Give the backbone structure.
Amino acid sequence: MKKGILFDKDGTLLSFQQTWAPIINEVANTVHNNYNIKEDSNTLLKEIGVNGQTIDGRGIFATKTMKEIAEVWQPYVKTISTTQLHDELSHIFYKSVEECKNDIKLIDGAEEVLRDLHSKGYILGVATADRKDVTVLMLETLGIKDLFSYVGADDGITLPKPNPYMLNEFCAQNNLEPANVFMVGDTLSDMQFGKNAGAKTIAILDSLTADDFKPYTNLIINTVAYVQDVLD
């Protein structure tokens, strides 16, 4: 019987704070400079839950898509529409990730466990709220893109978590049954996403506690490095 594991990206596979704090600071500085915004870039960052090098795990940047960031920042930009800003942000984010490649960090032990699971025949995938092009760039930069049979991300068509779209697509493309798939993530949205599709869920303790996750799953681990300890 084939089994699949679908991973959230940020906070699950990638060290969220280490990876994204430099990138989102670069993005905010670029937006500030490109549009001659009166307020400083720290104001833009605070609006989306970022304070210097610290990202609020419950804030807009950590939990929403680029569309929501554009909606929050557009009143500061003023000269272009939210839709236009969203398009501009797509390019700015990609360029900022390229410029901050050295800051992209995997969680300790993540690569080893991914390669081990892949060698054992598990079908692996990624489901993230991040842009598709940025996600692929990050996975390629880390040298792990070849381990994944599926990359679900924001491409303007794919529905975001907790809608089960990505998990259903992962199953359809790889001939898997949802009951034979584990969804691994660090947010309540990840857990609801898995349950909405009929998959099993594994919670990772990052910005939330075990008590937060208990209504959703009894499979709770400290980091992705221990995921094999709770697989059936």
Summary: The mean pLDDT is 95. The longest strand covers residues 123-131. The chain has ten helices and eight strands. Residues 48 and 60 are 5 Å apart (CA to CA).
